[in-house]
Amino acid sequence: MQQVEFWAGLAALSLVTTGLARWARVGLGWQPALALLRATVQLGVVAALLRGVITVPWTVVAFIVLMLTTASWTSGGRLSRLPRGRRSAALGVVGGATAALVPALGLRLVTLDTQHVVAIGGIVIGGAMNAATLSGRGFLHTAALRRDEVEGWLALGATPVRAYDDIARRSVREALLPNLDQTRATGLVTLPGAFVGALFGGAGPLEAAKFQLVVLASIGLAMLVCGLVVTGLASRSPYVIVD
């Protein structure tokens, strides 16, 4: 009965979110409910895969590659209207995640076992995916609003990179602000998942806090690099971008 009550309650929360969004005409359609349904299926598959990953260390690499591929594909779909959007998303996600995970693991800021590597890998890759989507869509929207300005720069002989310079920088900044706010509020307003998960996993409060700090620092670096890559590639478009 508890299982039935859990799934019924979860479905109710999702339907309330979907219904409220439709009532407010925010243009999400059934996406909130469908996204949660997809997450349910994916988490079930991941839970089954992790049993094998945790017991066979070499499969961690394959699992990280799977996460990178999925994140790149997901954010690429959101940026399909951006010039070279899918390629930019893939390069941004891979570049951002690599720039953050290599030093974090190389400096042994986290324990090099399968559980910790998969945990920090998934969180950092997810952060890079969000940065790709936010910075790319922000760039696309702002470029369309400031089309006359961009055309003016190009008419004066400026390179596309110069014409889109301010737009690119602002798009990266706006993409990073939510994560910076969450980092500032950690421990006072929010208890992040990595910290709580480590506690539930049996780690002491100090070890859990240290792991969370590594995660926060890594996400910040991954998102910054990803945003710079995505907007940098978008800025090289020789055409005026229209949303």
What does this structure look like?
- By secondary structure, the chain is mainly α.
- The chain folds into 2 domains: 1-43, no CATH class; 56-234, no CATH class.
- 79% of the residues lie in helices and 0% in strands.
- It has 10 helices and no strands.
- The protein has helices spanning 2-23, 31-55, 59-78, 85-106, 114-145, 147-155, 160-163, 165-185, 193-200, 205-234.
- Helix 4 (85-106) runs antiparallel to helix 10 (205-234) and helix 9 (193-200) runs antiparallel to helix 10.
- The model has no long low-confidence stretch (mean pLDDT 85).
Structural class: mainly alpha
Number of strands: 0
| Most strands sheet | none
Number of domains in the coordinates? 2
| Form type | globular
N→C terminal distance: 49 Å
**Number of helix segments?**
10
How would you classify the quaternary structure? single chain
Helix content: over 70%
* Overall average pLDDT: 85
> What Rg do the Cα atoms give?
20 Å
- Strand residue content: under 5%
> Which stretches are poorly predicted, pLDDT < 50 over at least 5 residues?
none
Would you list the SSEs in sequence order as H and E?
HHHHHHHHHH
Provide the descriptors you would attach to this structure in a database record.
single chain, 243 residues, mainly alpha, 2 domains, 10 helices, 79% helix
